[in-house]
Amino acid sequence: MKQILRLPLLFLVTAVLCACAHFDPEVTQQSRYYVDAKVDKSQLAVNVRPKGPLDESPKALLYPFWVSQKMDRSLLVGREIARVFHQTWTGEALFQTLAFDPELVYRGPEQAISVARRAGADLVIVGIIPYIIAGGTIDSSAISVQIRIYNTHTGNLLISMDQSARVNAKATQDWIVVSVETRLSDSTLTEAAAGIAHDMAIAMRSWLPPSDEVLGFADNAADMTRGLVASGQPASGGKFGVFPTPGHSVNLKVEFDVDSARIRPSSYPLLDQLAASLQSQELHGKRVLIAGHTDSTFTMAYNQTLSENRARSVKEYLVERGRIDPRLLRTIGYGKTRPLVPNTTKANMQRNRRVEVRLD
After folding, report:
1. Do residues 180 and 25 touch, judged by C-beta distance below 8 A?
2. CATH number, span 35-205
3. The whole model's pTM is what?
């Protein structure tokens, strides 16, 4: 039986639907509203997690997923779902590198760990799909994914997560003047898998080391300008020391000769980008502080002097080659007192050997 709406209520429903759905008006027959189906996800279950954050950004190998449910073309389905996870996690920049080999076939964790180790990966990611329904554009679709991440050097299981997602094809809601129909896309399974991959990425980010972007590193003039404009905000304490948090400064991976303040030629293009940023419309004439930082190697006094000299070298480069007014540049050295990340690995120590720039 069709439902009869009072006129004011009908106008209200029409206004709401127009804001969130596609409207197909008709004059001689019933009009239709098409609402895109939503992805409904279960709560993410984390069964195994690392004891603490990983020391450095790992290289990972992603296997095509294994569909344990009996179905036609299971290898193809597992490969395509894994591709969705690869694209999502690559966009999230979770790992230093995330390789995906669609030609691999999962034959158990031991074999996957061995293959990944030979490929030079620190982690191997395997996915198991115990349940999948592909309804296409006609019926509901659902998928359940189990992710297992192993350390290739020790063989230990580091992370175990499970989650399910569903895209429901709801019945048409039939009003006397209009009908509301749920519209299924051509890729409902892809949308469900991407939703799971995104939720898992949020969990993994808390165990993985922060990315260069999160730590405020920049390598082009546009990003430097944005970071320096934001550096006018007050600084706040960080987790590993009292230093400006990302967004309050710009960090640069300027390379110097060992135990020296001599800038390596490979870093000239980076400093040229900094000079271009300082000459931009947003920053022209602004006073800037250049701070040198070191890792924890050697003594406090040695690192203090080295950081001061390296900051002065950057200033000299900007003045001589970048044509920046020296009166706008002030230098300071912090030595090893303000690390961005713990000095526990070579990669972390390299990050801490940086040049920080912010508005003065």
Report:
1. no
2. 3.40.50
3. 0.62
